[in-house]
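Today's session is about reading a structure prediction critically. Students often jump straight to the picture, but the first step is always the sequence itself: look for stretches that repeat, for charged clusters, for runs of hydrophobic residues. Only then move on to the predicted structure, which in these notes is written as discrete structure tokens rather than atom positions. Here is the chain we will use throughout the hour.
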Amino acid sequence: MSRQVRVGVATVVAALLCALAVAVTVAAAAPRRTAAQIRVLAAASLTNVFPQIDSTPKYSFAGSDALAAQIRLGAPADVFASANTSLPNALYNAGLVEKPVVFTTNKLVIVTPKSNPAGIKTVFDLRKPGTKLLVGTPTVPIGSYTRTILRNMALTGILSNVVSQETDVRSILSKVALGEADAGFVYVTDAATVSDKVNVIRLPAWAQPPVRYGIAIIKSTQDRADALAFINKVLSADGQAKLKAAGFGAVKNGATTYAGG
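Below is the predicted structure for this chain, in token form.
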């Protein structure tokens, strides 16, 4: 073999080794798939606590009914967490999510602005003519629960004072906190996030409907393993402790793991 040929072969080998080294380096540096790649559609009332449980997913918080509608329309997402069980159960029956599991509970309260210009002290004060009341729409869980409480207390006439029906609980909360309404029905967990801006009026336990939150993997997910890991993180002791710290209730004999299906 001539010297020129040997030099050419050596050059080719060196180039191949260099390319291999670059490829190994790139492969080593390539990011691993993480839960940051999943999209979680979650009820607005979970806005504060879910990122505390896991800060890596991409969250979309809104009214549960609006999120369920997005899933029916094929919106790309991996996990659905609803402020009720009827919406995820309906999606399960339609073959759009895996079997839901209940992961927490909640209670409703009334909030008024700190200044309380209407002098609202109890739920019965909401009957006063001219009271500006905010509730959720009938299809969003907070609106459905509100109407159940009013029926249970024979106070549905209060709805004549409704000045706006909001699409999610955080809209009710923010408007009351800003003094744009005299009162509104929200979850106790939401009220706790702005305790310096609102007064809280408790509602009787006997009038409260069961407020149970359901969560499930969306069947169209491309990241089922990460979606499954997220739900199990919510059900874990640490996840449940964070929910409790935020004011959510425990599920009696609740699941501690989730397998979907």
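Discussion point for the tutorial: Residues 3-29 form the longest helix (27 residues).
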